[in-house]
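Box 4.2: Ligand-aware structure prediction
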Amino acid sequence: MKDVQRIAIVDPSDATREPLRNLLLGVEAVWLEAECSRFEFFIDVARQSCPDAVVITLDADHQKALQLIQQLTLEFPHMPILAVSARGDGQSILQALRAGAKEFLTAPVILEELLLALQRLRANRAMGGSDTNNPLNGTTRTESLVVSIVGSKGGVGCTSVAVNLSCCIAQEPKYNVALVDLDLALGDADVALDLIPDYTLADVAMNVDRLDMQFLRRSLCKHESGLSLLPHPVQMEDIALIHDEHLGRVIGLLRASYSHLIFDLSKRFTPTDLSAMRMSDAVLLVAQLELTSLRNVVRMLHTMDKEEGLGDKVKVVMNRVGVDDSDITLEKAQETIGRPIYWQVPNDYKSMLGARNAGVPLLIHAPKCRVHQSLTGLANALCGKTPAEAPKEKRRSFFSFR
Ligand SMILES: Nc1ncnc2c1ncn2[C@@H]1O[C@H](COP(=O)(O)OP(=O)(O)OP(=O)(O)O)[C@@H](O)[C@H]1O
Ligand SMILES: [Mg+2]
């Protein structure tokens, strides 16, 4: 679970306070610490509840609300204040900010804008500090880490990597991990985890206009490993319901609720796949030591490098290293690809197939197997955990190309 942000709200009008409260209640990372319907009582409420941020709706009485903001700013100089008003004109915004508000939103409040404003308030409160280190670019971040898994040909091991990597990350109690099956036609992450979904991406897409955080969270099925899964549509014809803008919205909301998002993409380089990769912090390109796969890696990198910021995110993951019938060496593969192999996953057909047939992840089926150890190391590397946390002898044998 991400750190919870404790919020107190004040709004004398039931008509606007209730929708705002409902929005906030739907955000997992938010705890509604206090709710007040009188401006004059709120300073006491703030003193008693010491919230991480306050939300003040101005419209019932602008003058009183602005005075309250000033009073709060005087007494709690570091308290992040979000002002909300139906009057979104420059004058009103300026007055609220001059009084001491850090953020301003126009009512009715839209969930995405609220989440972004809360994120900024959180960052503000931390005075530039943050919740999670971003090991991928060395900066700090308050948002989730988003990783796309894409393959260089069919059957190369994307779903195996996506499912098992997600389960490994989900083992950390402070993380909240969701796997989204974006292989819309033929995905099988639900089969790999033996989950029978009540809802899929299609339900989410169909309800996108009235999507709130509670509905979205209900749409994900929970696996015993702690991982949440948003599966691909059950009916093939429902794929057409999922538009790019839906995906953007869904991912935006998921980012606010989960610390880690993993996407299992299709092999068809569809607009959905590309959007997902653009929204990701890292793209794991899964390949094998085999001619077609390596040639496709080169082609894919060539295309991705053309788009600013996309090629740089790609990390090549070589799967099934050590498989008997390969005569291409890792050195040769690196030379062909023209960039380092970020991670190697050993070949272990027995464990992989056994886990898949049993519908359980490796961490349940074969926690000691080499593939699981390798994927645990990959999870640690992506999450910025120290290499010391990965098992030593395995690192020496398998991760020498990092
Ligand atoms: N490291 C590995 N060692 C041995 N077998 C593996 C390994 N990784 C994956 N496999 C096996 O390869 C097969 C294909 O794996 P998977 O379904 O994960 O690939 P995919 O890229 O998702 O395929 P698709 O193109 O159908 O989406 C499975 O039988 C799986 O058990
Ligand atoms: Mg797959």
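In the box above, the bound molecule is magnesium ion. Residues 151, 154-160, 183, 267, 319-320, 345, 347-349, 352-353, 356, 371 surround adenosine-5'-triphosphate (ligand 1) (CB under 6 Å).
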